[in-house]
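Title: Prediction job returns without error message
Component: structure pipeline
Severity: low
Priority: P3
Assignee: unassigned

Description:
Job completed but the reporter wants confirmation the result is attached to the right record. Sequence as submitted:
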Amino acid sequence: MRESVIYQDILQEGLKEGFERKAQEIAIKMINKNIEIETIVDITGLTFEQVEHLKAQTGNNQSQ
């Protein structure tokens, strides 16, 4: 059975969101272990701004 283009688009979007959510979970764990932001960005693929935002949300504002 051939899947519709709409179904493929929805599936791809869901996968993208899932990967990003997992990257954020990993980043939060790394933030809590006081790993440098540059390292978190490199490993997770998140942007510097995304990691900074997660850091602010966790309340982990220790200088590195």
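Comment from assignee: result matches the submitted record. The chain has a mean pLDDT of 91.
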